[in-house]
Amino acid sequence: MLSEYLPILIQAIVVIGFAAVTLLASVALGRAGRRNKVKDSAYECGMLPLGEAAPRFSVKFYLVAMLFILFDIEVVFMYPWAVVYRGFLLEYGRIILWSMLGFVGILTVAYVYALKKGALDWKQ
Fold first, then answer.
1. Between the chain's N and C termini, which has fewer beta carbons within 10 Å?
2. CA 84, 90, 95, 98 torsion: positive or negative?
3. What is the pLDDT averaged over residues 53-69?
4. Beta-bridge partners for 105
């Protein structure tokens, strides 16, 4: 039984040996980097890094992004659902239709709620 694991053991030894040899060769043959002011400065696409690190975004941006993901997942679930249940439509057609209409109904209520709350209104 141990002879069946021999190829895995050999491969593990080769992998660990290759990693060790590569690291040791890098240390032995590589030159130590010389530090200076230019090399130690941050590189930002050729521009000098001035100002804040990242611009501030409105909360509305994140809210719309989350709503997009929420309603985009609806389509991600609908397509495989339609493909998988194509063969069951003759036998269980009404149950499948009502389950999907319930799913779409819940998402429609969520969409109307988001509209009523003004989540998609950019002027506020």
1. N
2. positive
3. 79
4. none
Distance CA 51, CA 55 (A): 9
DSSP labels for 80-121? HHHHHTTTTHHHHHHHHHHHHHHHHHHHHHHHHHHHHHTTT-
Cross-strand partners of 44? 47
pTM for the whole structure: 0.46
Rounded to 5 degrees, what angle do the CA atoms 40, 46, 51 make?
80
Distance CA 22, CA 25 (A): 5
Could you tell me the sign of the dihedral formed by the alpha carbons of 96, 100, 103, 106, in that order? negative
Distance CA 65, CA 63 (A): 5
Can you tell me which residue has the tokens 């109307």? Answer: 112
Mean pLDDT of 44-50: 68
